[in-house]
């Protein structure tokens, strides 16, 4: 018997909303299931801003995906009339040999991306809020900037619905199963049971429970975003004059931040890139302590001395990190006929949201994609080992 739907999308956060849109836009009957409301704040896709950049220090293999993502972000703005991306420029700062600087330069050179190398004096001259040490340099990329995550999710949900997708919110999936012979799936929620020809699983921080069969090590990490009101006012932090930044210190600790984009009293957002503590999405501590805010302020003091004026707010978010910090994006190895997975975005996935939507649609409908995704294979050995830079709740780093 044919299924009433072609594809069910589990999870309508960053990736799932994009997948639902691309699948529905190609004329398929889509059901999206989300445990919370639209563009909610309890997963990984909230907080007003996400950095986008192309000179990618993580690996040059991401660059073609980023180029496509930029095109799709622009199309999303065009198709919905929403303001999503602001390319205010970005600097990757650190010692020349740091991963942040050397890796960004490697990607820029390999893909011939427009960029400039600035010494410390030039950084201080062009961006007076930034005070790098004399032995630090920066790669400046004019096409870096930020996108708005909630608007991105809302835009994809809107377009998915316009293309005919049925989206159900406040309806958690309790379990899913593949029908005999891989001839479709059955998905159980708190309210009902649905069947479809194919299932796409985009569960964010809930991957360890919903995708245990992958046998991959996921570390769900609590991360904090801080908004500080700059001392002396936020004018120098306006997006017309202030870049986004990723800044690596001599110990390899990275911070990142944004211009002040939430009005004169909104503060400027900043955070540690990889200093989270393991958590469970059901019980994650949402309160941020004064000691945590003080540690953030201390890290800023020598680098952006004006920024840690007073703390406006601090909000938690979650990363779902794989041992090698690369994504998991493929047909499910145990259920290749019926299930596609998109998870383990390891704290750097948002800039890929639109292209992941396109890739998931390719994989779900055709079993393959023309985009280069070899790095994201769920069968790779690296996924079986624990995360090397796992931080304990006390902030100590284990080896
Ligand atoms: C503090 C912070 C800063 C970041 N900064 C950047 C950045 O600057 N640049 C960048 O590129 N990336 C950044 N990221 C990473 C990026 O935001 C994530 O990789 C991305 O949002 C992950 O999207 P997702 O769809 O996997 O997860 P989510 O958006 O969380 O979506 C998963 C969805 O699945 C739903 N779900 C889970 N279980 C069920 C169930 N049982 N039934 C139904 N629905 C379910 C959840 O409710 C959720 O809506 C950052 C992340 C954080 C937390």
From TrEMBL:
Q: Which InterPro entries match?
A: 3-OH-isobutyrate_DH-rel_CS (IPR002204), FAD-dep_OxRdtase (IPR006076), FAD/NAD-bd_sf (IPR036188), MTOX (IPR045170)
Task: Enumerate the GO terms in the molecular function aspect.
Answer: flavin adenine dinucleotide binding; sarcosine oxidase activity
PROSITE patterns for this protein: 3_HYDROXYISOBUT_DH
Give the protein's cofactors: FAD
Residue ranges constituting the FAD dependent oxidoreductase domain according to the UniProt record:
6-363
This protein's superkingdom? Bacteria
Q: Which UniProt keywords apply?
A: FAD, Flavoprotein, Oxidoreductase
Could you identify this protein by its name?
Sarcosine oxidase
Q: Please tell me the species this chain comes from.
A: Streptomyces qinglanensis
């Amino acid at each position: 018997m044919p299924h009433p739907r072609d594809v069910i999308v589990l999870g309508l956060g960053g990736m799932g909303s994009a997948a639902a849109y691309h699948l529905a836009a190609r004329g398929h009957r889509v059901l999206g299931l989300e445990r919370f409301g639209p563009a909610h704040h309890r997963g990984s896709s909230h907080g007003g801003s996400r950095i986008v950049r192309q000179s990618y220090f993580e690996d040059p293999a991401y660059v073609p995906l980023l180029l496509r993502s930029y095109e799709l972000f622009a199309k999303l703005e065009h198709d919905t009339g929403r303001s999503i991306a602001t390319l205010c420029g970005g600097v990757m700062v650190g010692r020349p040999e740091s991963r942040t600087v050397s890796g960004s330069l490697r990607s820029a050179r390999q893909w011939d991306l427009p960029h400039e190398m600035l010494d410390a004096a030039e950084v201080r001259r062009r961006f007076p809020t930034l005070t790098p040490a004399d032995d630090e340099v920066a790669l400046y990329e004019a096409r870096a900037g930020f996108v708005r995550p909630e608007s991105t999710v809302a835009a994809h949900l809107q377009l998915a619905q316009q293309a005919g997708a049925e989206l159900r919110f406040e309806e958690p999936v309790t379990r899913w199963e593949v029908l005999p012979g891989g001839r479709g799936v059955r998905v159980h929620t708190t309210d009902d049971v649905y069947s479809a020809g194919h299932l796409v699983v985009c569960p964010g921080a809930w991957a360890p429970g919903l995708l245990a069969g992958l046998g991959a090590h996921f570390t769900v990490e609590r991360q904090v975003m801080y908004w500080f009101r700059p001392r002396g006012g936020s004018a120098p932090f306006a997006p017309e004059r202030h870049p986004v930044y990723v800044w690596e210190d001599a110990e390899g600790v990275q911070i990142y931040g944004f211009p002040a984009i939430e009005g004169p009293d909104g503060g400027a957002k900043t955070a540690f890139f990889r200093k989270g503590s393991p958590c469970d999405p059901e019980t994650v501590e949402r309160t941020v302590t004064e000691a945590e805010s003080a540690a953030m302020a201390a890290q800023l003091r020598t680098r952006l001395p004006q920024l840690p004026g007073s703390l406006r707010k601090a909000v938690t978010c979650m990363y779902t990190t794989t041992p090698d910090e690369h994504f998991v994006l493929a047909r499910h190895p145990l259920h290749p006929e019926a299930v596609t997975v998109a998870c383990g975005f390891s704290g750097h996935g948002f800039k890929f949201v639109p292209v992941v939507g396109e890739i998931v649609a390719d994989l779900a409908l055709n079993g393959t994609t023309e985009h280069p995704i070899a790095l994201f294979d769920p069968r790779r050995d690296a996924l079986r080992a624990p995360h090397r830079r796992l931080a304990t709740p006390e902030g100590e780093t284990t080896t």
